[in-house]
Specification:
The complex is a heterotrimer of chains A (95), B (487) and C (483). Chain A contains three helices and two strands, in the order αααββ. With 95 residues, chain A is mainly α. Chain A has a two-stranded antiparallel sheet with strand order 1-2. In chain A, α1 packs across α2. The model of chain A has no long low-confidence stretch (mean pLDDT 94). With 487 residues, chain B is an alpha/beta fold. Chain B is built from 16 helices and eleven strands. In chain B, α2 packs antiparallel against α3, α7 packs antiparallel against α16 and α10 packs across α13. Chain C is of the alpha+beta class. Chain C folds into three domains: 288 residues, no CATH class; 120 residues, no CATH class; 59 residues, Arc Repressor Mutant, subunit A (Orthogonal Bundle), CATH 1.10.10.410. In chain C, α12 packs across α14 and α14 packs across α15. The chains are: A mainly alpha (95), B alpha/beta (487), C alpha+beta (483). Chains A and B meet through α1, α2 and β2 of A and α10, α11, α12, α13 and α14 of B.
């Protein structure tokens, strides 16, 4: 399975990874090699096999609906790259 | 001085005031100061807070706790309030966690003193500790060699005697493999045994916290404090934790008598280095000598583990790492011109190469048109692999196998060849996929480099693993060997 | 060409829980920015979601109320996209295995006929935060208080054929979730958000046309207008030879039009997969039975009961059962009248939907805020029924009650001396006087223009200040004129 540079560009775009052309070319080769390894899955006979999402076959535990006061905003925003008036800032999004 | 004492002995001596916590903490801080420049195992140091905490413990704050005054180091994947938690990444180089992981909280409540945070592969993605933003860790047994990964800093720190125990996490072998490469004892418990809350997620359905120490006995003491139900982790299991240390004491040397130990033939096939094979065979002979019944078993889907893992783990990782977007914390690129620029440059510059590779593989296998062929298929092969183990454990009590095909490799040797790095994990991935508990126990050396014996037990049978390893360590001294220069 | 409109609605119903769906942060509306966003809501590294059981219970109640299947096992999945108000880079939602599937809601059409609208599925998901685009010059601000608020997304079949039908369905759903107590129904605060999928096709065609999705419709009136606009726009495009582009559109109530949201039209690849941090939600029969036992009487059943118990017509019964508060008010009113429910049902319905709702509308009040209690209104109706006052005087008493001029109808009647005159002698005096004062009209009546009796009776009522019993006045006047 070989990935074209165009495909790598699309995946990088999906994952919001800013890569230059050299990186794209390198990754195309590396990702193709990885997908070659992974391709052996095709051969496995999985007829009637249920997908396994978790190692343990358990059901969700449901929490009681009780609200707890939130840790201070200042604690969280002290580590934020850009905040003003209690909100996080990002470059203006034009709708 | 303290190096030869077990954690239980240290805790006992501390409680009896034969030893002060400050004294013990200073001892390890000195060793760190003396040796860590060479090894690079710790990437955040908590000297002053460690001394303050030790002094408080000496003053009686943690009296009655099982590990009062015992020094420890945390893998930098565990969030520590007020201390940088980088996960080995530039992305979190500036991230001072505003909360403690459950594991950190519990070990603190048990009386431990944290000396710092250990180096690791970036976001736990790697088997050599070379993907860390903070540089590679060196193997104390030979500093041209890798310590293994991703918990390489923790394993090397324990091996070099810089700390008596350290936490780790295992997604595909990240505790067992570095434990084997560094000649220390490491345990990855059953998935769900140790809370994942506050442990930065790599692949949520595989990640499991565990620990490193010199011996099984020490691991038992540390795991005891870490394990147990946590209501903040939906995948944490509500199930009583047995008294591991008591189990070791009760069964003692006779633990292996009559125990059926299975050797999966797939783990001894082509690929296993001959010298390592001899070490493993000798260890198995010791098991037999102590009364274990050795039988050959088969885990027929073993060869699907690498491909299964390298679909599922990157898929989950690509999703788990989507939160690192430069908005609320972590790395943000300089002067983003717009939102897209903020995202793509922050993530392009903040993540290292291996992480980017896995994010892209993950995004690809989940993307429209490929999901069924990759992700869904891998979930099915995962079940086949897990079934192999449940079938095997119908016949045997324990599985013994090598941890890796060969001892540690040289720094830089596989860095440019991700696929060969991935294939290196072939013996540790299956148990991770099945969620089983596993250990690596020091079993000997090849050319001066340690070799680990892997032990696997049925789900939630950590006591059995620890008991078997402990019994083995009663009659062997591989676990108490010290690398030259670090005695 | 005759065009047929096809509409399906997707409604986001915000569940009225104390805490969020996956975190313990409170859900209250209107707090200071980011003060109700916990470590889980802002997606700090290492945090994990834990499901709020109340959310599962509420979704089950909803499923039962729309006669749907409750999935014995449902799964939360991650839906990936990057947006600054989506802190994890994915939204936890349900994809392949939603908790509720295959239900329906019966609506009453304007012509009185009933129509069944299919509900494909209703799944649980978490809300995103809010992006504040206007607050700063160069930046967009992000407030994550709303992030993690539990939502049920209810997806209908494309069963509706007009804006009016869509509104009837939306109203019915809106009433239902409030009946169930699972949503406060506040559309302005976004507790009940409707997106309309609209397409048109040539009449008689069985294939669907290309649809658009219109968002940002925060009232029923706007829903109707947005759909009407969109239908007209699509027909115009098609009739002028164009094609409809499948897209998301935004309703602008000021301009009364829908606009394409091209900026969001990048092809999405959400990369759904089961959330590995969450285990499947397993609902057993016991859980469903407990939810069923908690179900209140639902609007349709209540409507049928109102028709039988209070002898109401279908339309009245439907209007009264539209909201649980209104229905409760009605029942309390009839109880306060006392006596036979079937007798007093219709007058009570008339008072409530006539004078009371008129007055409430005038003052911008809801039924819960009514200054006239059900007990007071019942007391008033009783006095009209037993002829203590006339219906006309009753209206004055009602206004007095509404203005808080008295404790009860009786007190107001007493204080204002409004008691009806039933004494025949007194009435006879008024009648004789009116006959004497209006010889022309009396003459006309006797010549056969009998309609003029209305004028004469009116004069009597005027003379008695409305207090004479009109029935008695009528009878007496007719008898006197026939003499």
């Amino acid at each position: 399975m070989s990935l074209s540079e165009e495909q790598v560009r699309n995946v990088a775009r999906l994952a919001r990874l800013g890569l230059d052309d050299d990186q794209i070319a390198e990754y195309a080769g590396e990702l193709s090699n990885i997908l070659d390894v992974v391709a052996s899955l095709e051969q496995a006979d999985t007829t009637d096999v249920e997908p396994m999402a978790h190692p343990l076959d358990l059901a969700a535990r449901l929490r009681a609906d009780e609200a707890v006061a939130v840790q201070s905003r200042e604690d969280f925003q002290a580590i934020a790259p850009a905040v003003a008036e209690g909100v996080y800032l990002v470059p203006k999004v034009i709708e | 001085m303290s190096d030869e004492r077990s954690i239980r002995q240290l805790a006992g001596d501390l409680a009896a005031k034969k030893l002060s916590a400050v004294e013990l903490t200073d001892h390890f801080l000195k060793r760190i100061a003396a040796h860590d420049e060479r090894l690079n195992t710790l990437i955040s140091h908590s000297e002053s807070t460690a001394r303050e905490r030790a002094a408080a413990i000496d003053a009686g704050t943690d009296a009655g706790t099982p590990l009062a005054g015992v020094p420890i180091a945390h893998k930098d994947i565990f969030c520590t309030r007020g201390v940088r938690t980088s996960c080995g990444s530039r992305m979190l180089d500036n991230f001072v966690a505003p909360y403690d992981a459950t594991v950190v909280e519990r070990l603190a409540a048990a009386g431990t003193v944290s000396l710092g945070k250990t180096n690791m592969d970036e976001f736990a993605m790697g088997s050599s500790n070379e993907t860390s933003f903070y540089g590679a860790v060196r193997n104390p047994w030979h500093t041209d060699y890798v310590p293994g990964g991703s918990s390489g800093g923790s394993a090397a720190a324990v091996a070099a005697g810089l700390v008596p125990a350290a936490t780790g996490s295992d997604t595909g072998g990240s505790i067992r493999q570095p434990a084997a490469f560094c000649g220390v004892t490491g345990i990855k418990p059953t998935y769900g045994r140790v809370s994942r809350y506050g442990m930065i997620a790599f692949a949520s359905s595989l990640d499991q916290g565990g620990c490193f120490a010199r011996s099984a006995e020490d691991c038992a003491a540390v795991l005891q404090a870490m394990a147990g139900f946590d209501e903040r982790d939906s995948t944490s299991v509500e199930r009583a934790v047995p008294d591991y240390s008591a189990a070791l004491d009760a069964q003692g040397d006779d633990f292996l008598k009559g125990m059926k130990v299975g050797l999966p033939k797939e783990y001894f096939a082509e690929g296993l280095d001959d010298a390592s094979r001899q070490v493993i065979n000798a260890a198995i002979a010791e098991f037999e000598a102590r009364g274990a019944e050795i039988v050959e078993i088969t885990l027929p889907h073993t060869d699907l583990a690498v491909s299964t893992y390298y679909v599922l783990a990157p898929a989950e990782a690509s999703s788990n790492l989507a939160r690192f977007d430069g908005v609320r914390y972590g790395y943000r690129c300089d002067n983003p011109v717009d939102l897209e620029d903020l995202y793509t440059r922050s993530r392009g510059e903040g993540f290292g190469r291996e992480v980017q590779r896995r994010i892209m593989v993950g995004a690809y296998v989940l993307s429209a048109g490929y999901y069924d062929a990759y992700y869904l298929k891998a979930q099915k092969t995962r079940r086949l692999i897990a079934r192999d183990f449940s079938d095997a454990f119908d016949k045997v009590d324990l599985i013994a196998a090598p941890v890796t095909q060969a001892p540690a490799f040289k720094l830089g040797e596989k860095l440019d060849d991700p696929v060969s790095m991935y294939l290196n994990d072939v013996y540790t991935l299956p148990a991770s996929l099945a969620g089983l508990p596993g250990m690596s126990v020091p079993a000997g050396f090849v050319d001066g480099l340690p070799v680990g014996l892997q032990l696997l037990a049925p789900w939630f049978e950590e006591s059995r693993l620890l008991g078997a390893a402990h019994a083995y360590q009663q009659s062997t001294d591989w676990h108490s060997k010290r690398p030259a220069g670090f005695e | 060409m005759a065009w047929e409109t096809v509409i399906g609605l997707e409604v986001h119903i915000q569940l009225a829980t104390q805490s969020k769906i996956f975190s313990t942060a409170p859900t209250a509306y209107g707090a200071e920015p980011n003060t109700q966003a916990s470590a889980v809501d802002i997606a700090l590294p290492g945090v994990l979601p834990v499901i709020n059981g109340q959310v599962i219970r509420m979704a089950t109640l909803f499923g039962l109320a729309i006669d749907a299947d409750i999935a014995p096992k449902s799964v939360f999945a991650r839906k990936h996209y990057f947006y600054p108000d989506l802190p994890k880079g994915y939204q936890i939602s349900q994809f392949e295995l939603p908790i509720v599937a295959d239900g329906h809601l019966d609506i009453v059409l304007p012509d009185g006929t009933e129509k069944r609208v299919g509900i494909t599925r209703a799944h649980l998901e978490e809300d995103a935060g809010k992006s504040l685009h206007e607050a700063f010059d160069r930046d967009t601000g992000i407030d994550l208080n709303r992030a993690g608020t539990p939502l049920v997304e209810c997806v209908s079949e494309p069963d509706m054929r007009s804006a009016a039908e869509a509104v009837a369905y939306a109203r019915k759903l809106h009433a239902l979730v409030q009946y169930l107590g699972i949503c406060d129904g506040n559309m302005q605060e976004g507790s009940f958000r409707v997106d309309a999928n609209v397409s048109v096709r040539p009449g008689g065609s069985t294939e669907f046309g290309t649809r658009t999705e219109t968002k940002n419709v925060n009232s029923f009136r706007f829903l109707e207008k947005a759909i009407e606009f969109e239908v007209e726009r699509q027909i115009d495009v098609l009739e002028s030879g164009g094609t409809i582009v499948q897209e998301t559109r935004l309703y602008d109530p000021d301009a009364d039009e829908t606009r394409s949201m091209r900026s969001k039209e990048e092809a999405h690849d959400y990369r759904y997969f089961p959330d590995p941090d969450l285990l499947p939600v397993v609902i057993d029969e016991e859980f469903v039975a407990a939810a069923r036992a908690d179900l209140p009487e639902l609007p349709d059943a209540k409507r049928e009961r109102f028709m039988a118990e209070y002898a109401l017509g279908r339309e009245d019964a439907a209007a009264l059962t539209n909201s649980r508060a209104l229905a409760n008010y009605f029942e309390a009113t009839v109880a306060a009248v006392g006596g036979d429910a079937a007798t007093h049902g219709k007058p009570a319905a008339n008072w409530i939907m006539g004078d009371l709702s008129g007055a409430l509308n005038r003052e911008g009040l809801t039924i819960a805020q009514s200054p006239v209690s059900a007990e007071q209104l019942g007391g008033l109706i009783a006095r009209v029924a037993d002829n203590t006052i006339s219906g006309k005087i009753g209206k004055d008493v009602f206004e007095a009650l509404f203005k808080g001029e008295g404790e009860s109808a009786d007190a107001i009647i007493e204080a204002k001396g409004l008691k009806q005159i039933t004494d025949s002698g007194e009435i006879e005096g008024f009648v004789d006087q009116v006959i004497a004062d209006n010889p022309d009209q009396v003459e006309q009546y006797r010549e056969g223009k009998t309609k003029v009796i209305g004028f004469l009776v009116g004069q009597v009522m005027k003379a008695s200040k409305g207090k004479a019993n009109p029935k008695e006045v009528n009878q007496m006047m007719a008898a006197k004129l026939a003499e």
